[in-house]
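dude i think i finally got it to work??
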Amino acid sequence: MKRIAFALVAAATLMFAGCAKEGPAGPAGSDGADGINGQDGADAGFELYETTVVVADWQGGVYTEFPAPNVTESIYNQGMVMVYIQDEFGYWNQIPSAWTDFVGFAFFWTADTGGIVGLDYDPTLTVDTDFNVRVVTMELRDYELLDEEDLVTFEALTEALAK
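look at this
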């Protein structure tokens, strides 16, 4: 019986303590970092370059390079580059991907050449078709806000960026 009475008194004390008046509001905090869509919904620096790489462009059938104007000095030094290839079904898959025979890509920038992207194809195969390519660039701070599944396909990326 004493335990029940003690429990009731403890519960009542907690209820009354929780009903205290709130004090004055504190000072405003600092602004947080902009999200993927940037301040006021403006685009946060995401840029897209599309091109078609034809069979004749491949060196030894497994490597090619092409200019990518959205790979700027700033992106090269402090940003992210993602490359997507359109497969025969129309899907845009990130490189590297289990869904394509592309095994990797590289990018660089110099004042003389501008941005260049290089694609590596499975060396046991030979490229025998033209490919549509999308090069996506963005600031590193925006890339870091994305989840891994947001990067798998171009559609997933654009959906995440639209949020």
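The beta strands are 47-53, 63-67, 79-86, 92-94, 102-110, 114-121, 131-139.
im so relieved honestly
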